[in-house]
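job 3f2a | input accepted
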Amino acid sequence: MATIITKDSLRSSVEAATGGLCTVLYDDAGHPSFMRRIPKMNIEDLYPDLGLTGTHPAFIVNGVEKSELFIGMYPASLVDSYAVSLPGMDPANYLNFDSAVTYCKNKGTGWHLMTNVEWALLGALGIKTGFQPRGNTWWGQHHEAKHETGTLAPGASELGVSNDDLHGRTLTGSGPVSWRHDNSPAGIADLVGNVWEWTGGMRLNAGEINIIKDNDAAAHDVDMSADSSAWKAILQNGTLATPGTADTLKYDAAGSNGTGAVKLNKTITSQYPSPDTTASSSCTFKSMTAESSVTVPALLKLLSLYPVDTTNPVGSIWMRNSAERLALRGGYYYGAGGAGLFGLNVNCYRSNRNRNVGFRPALAPIRQKPGGHGCRDGTGAKGGRFLPDAKRGNSSAPARQVGDERGAGAIACVR
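job 3f2a | predicted structure (415 res):
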């Protein structure tokens, strides 16, 4: 395990309380974020029956393997134009995809919007350990385990009461340990429910599944714009291809006009209409099927874009196979049984903003300078890596609660 030298009381207390599993890292402006360290893992150790081996792609950025990743312990809140991961905050919301990307990149090199492949890594850990977290899936409480509650954020409805004029968000990390990814106080909180979370590196484009290879979506200079050449389609043998290539994998719909259950196909037989209606194609994630003529590549399962089995993944998938749709993960406070670690929403345009949509920062450390000792930034991380340039210490600026309560409930784009 890499050594992290504690240089301030906040970091020292967090590391001591979690046995070094969690730490506090500072961005270029000196804002602290509570982060969970995830050491490099191999695919076969997570999914031994998948037929893939080697380093999990979440740890490969622009061809360089990372010894670890840091995932925000909490959904983002904002300090000025910087995303931070702090406990006890109303999650940032009413932000579109590109804004979420920018607020994370503003933190400095290595900082990024949590990516789909990183989310899939946590899903794989959930399958391997046999524990998948619950969360705020029904107006401040879990929809089944209703004794599990969080602290309602300002402006929320009453606990357990649906109200389209209000919201049902809870303060970050305020729920029980069963709302954390590993069922411990050191776990990553609120992955399930509370707010849908934008994730980078995955989209639908007219139904075609597009990804950015490995974890290149974590790179500071990555281009995730609609016309970026970084987007790649997936063939049945798991290789990547230029979008629009024949027989790439797509999300098709079993019903008419892009409705009914989601099914994997190499052609679109049921297209969602334009303009959008309130309908979409959906099913539980684990019940998704493939057209009989389609071979499902292991890569799709590894990326939590197709179920690894028919019993374990928790959550549902919603999709609209027209135009460009960016990926949201985890579910929200009104999601009930559809929320889950494998919950996937590809209904939404990148411009979507809603009070039930947020995001989460992550960090892929960059390598230590040749001949250097420790890190160039003063964060105190030590080893074969260094973290972004940063000033240590707390910013005097308070965390800003971002949101817009003018809308009435979830718009048609978001389940």
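job 3f2a | The radius of gyration is 20 Å.
job 3f2a | closed
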